[in-house]
Structure formats: C-alpha cells, structure tokens
Amino acid sequence: TLQNVTIPPSENCTSPDFCWTEGNVTWTLKNITETEYISKCQHIFVNSDLPDLAIGLILLALSLLVLCSCLIMIVKLLNSVLKGQVASVIKKTINTDFPFPFTWLAGYLAMLAGAGMTFIVQSSSVFTSAITPLVGIGVISIERSYPLTLGANIGTTTTAILAALASPGSTLKYSLQIALCHFFFNVSGIILFYPIPYTRLPIRMSKTLGNITAQYRWFAIFYLLLCFFLLPLFVFALSLAGWAVLLGVCLPLFLLFIAVVVINVMQKRRPHSLPEKLQNWDFLPVWMHSLEPWDNIIMSSLAFCGKHCCGFCKCCKVNTEQEGAKDNQLKTMEVYENTMAMADEERGGRRAPAVACVDKTGTNNTAL
Fold first, then answer.
1. First-residue to last-residue Cα distance in the chain
2. Helix H or strand E segment including 19
C-alpha cells in the first residue's frame, strides 16, 4: 500500500513532488508491505504453547528414537534373512580374493564399493549398521569389513561436498574448504592405517575389544561412555584451564599409555628382554590389571534385575538357566510319579496296563 511516512530531512528524495515539509517533519510517499496471517501452519505443535526450545528438544528425542529403532530393525532383519544358502553365496562373493599377485586389489575394490553404497544411501551409519550383523553371523570377515568401513567414511564426505557446492557464491570458497578438509582427513586416515598390513591396527583393536565385550557385556557401555563422553569432557575441561595445564596433565598420561602398550607387546613377544618383575602384571593389585573384580562388583549390583530384565547382565541368564533346569527336573518328576512304572522300565519288563492317577500337587497328572 502507498502511505505517507516520515523521513530524515537529510535523506535525498527521488523527486521533489513526493516530499514535503510540515514544521520540523519531512514526509514522503512510500510503498509499505503489510503481512496478514490468514491461516496457521499445519504441524503437530501448531496449537501448543511450548517454547521453541522445548519443541526442538522433543523433536530431537523423537528423531533419535526413530533412527535407533530403524537401525535395530535393519540389524534384526538382516540377521534373520541372511542365513543358510544366501549367507554362503554372499560369503563366497564378498570375501573372495584375487589370485596372486593381485591379492591386495580386493581391499581397494571393497573401499570403492563401500564409498559407492554410502553415496547412494547418503549415510555411513546405515551402511555400517547393515554390515555389522553380517560380520556377527560370519557372512563378511572382519578383514573385509575394514576396507568397506573405510570406503564408507569416504562416501559420507560427498554429502558435505554436495552441500558446499550448493552454497551461495559469496561463501562457496569457505564451505568448499571445510568440505575438502573433511574429505582429506578421511583419506589421510586410510593412508596411515591401511596400505601397509602391519599398520592395520583397528582390526586387532576391534578383535580385542570384541573378545573383552563378549566376556564382560558391561564393558561396551563403559567404552562408549569413556571414549565419547568422559574423555572428551576431561580434555575440554583441561583446555579451559590453559595450555600449560592441558600439557602438564595429558603429556604424562600419554607417555604412561605408550609405556603400557610397549610393555604389553614385549610381554607377548619377547618377555625375556624385560626385567623379571615386568614380565607380567602380577605385582599390581588385581583390580588394576584384570576386569574380573570390576565384573563381580557390577554383576552383584545388578543382581536385583531378576528374570524380567532385558537379558543384558549375567545374573539374568544364570537365573533363567537355573529356572529352566528346575522346570525340567519337575517335569521329569511329574512324568515318573508312578513308581511301579519306573520299576517296570528298569527291569525292561512289560508296562502295566493300569494307569494310576496320583495327585501330589493338587492336580491330576497322568503317570507314564
């Protein structure tokens, strides 16, 4: 709409015909746009009085729930479908190596396959979650899943590169720089930890972690909390105190970690090169070199879970097995309640035609 509005006197008018002065106020004609909201947007929180922060947190929790549910269902579906003859065919196809001297080429082709599949689904989480149950049931070897995962890390960088190319021209340079940093970071990781077989440490580390987790189920949650929450929070808190504090604390801990790794390697390969005291860790308290005391503490704290728990802790399995054995024993006792029949069977004689009904538990049970 065309309306009269006030402007500063120093503003240049486009035409003297559209500007006039009344006292100390200068007026002009301008087009003013007014927006009238005729109808509300259609979404689930349209009539809610919650603030934007609360709505965002609710949507975040729901999205994480849907994501985790979908991943769990994908894993369950693949675990149930890929069995039997299908599993053997996939196992022969994926785990096949090229003949010598081109054996090394299969890993790099697996990288290309992982990058291509991740580029198609646009999610490395979906791809890695799909191959995880295949590794668990033995369809894909862990040595072959390693290059597939590295390729997935390359394929997931294409999302950032495509987003950077779609940015405006004024910010294209900086967004593309960040996307390429993401890409070359993953490429550098592949160069460091794949071409030379001896440097493929993640394979050995994953096997060690898998063996520990298979024996102590709680260690998986402890590992996630430590590596993805407690350790970053610890380093971040030290960084707030300054670089001097960060280096003064982290550097000795890092040197101690390297020393422990070196001693462990030498204990396995060349124990006689070490002093007699360092040939094993028995000189330390048990809780410092074994997870068994920690397992006893955690399992005893979870002893209240009972038979209705999720099946995570060992006490549930032990109780379930004991109850199952007890039920089998009771059923066996119920079957042979007729002592005469038991005697006939022991003598190998002919079973008596008469069938007795014995009521021991308040119900009529037919004795065999």
1. 99
2. strand 19-22
pLDDT in tens, 28-41: 777 778 888 788 77
pLDDT tens, position by position, 197-254: 888 889 988 888 989 998 998 898 999 999 999 999 998 998 888 888 888 888 999 9
The domain spans of the chain are 2-31, 84-215, 216-295
CB of 119 within 8 A of CB of 157?
no
Place of tokens 């069977």: 345
Cross-strand pairs, 29: 4
Tokens of 345: 């069977």
- CA 1 – CA 296 distance, rounded (Å): 78
Residue type, 119: F
Predicted pLDDT of residue 243: 85
Whether this model's pTM surpasses 0.85 = no
Residue 96 tokens read as: 């096949």
Alpha-carbon gap, residue 358 to 341, rounded angstroms: 13
b/e map of 176-188 (b: 16 or more CB within 10 Å)? beebeebbeebee
SS3 for 368? coil
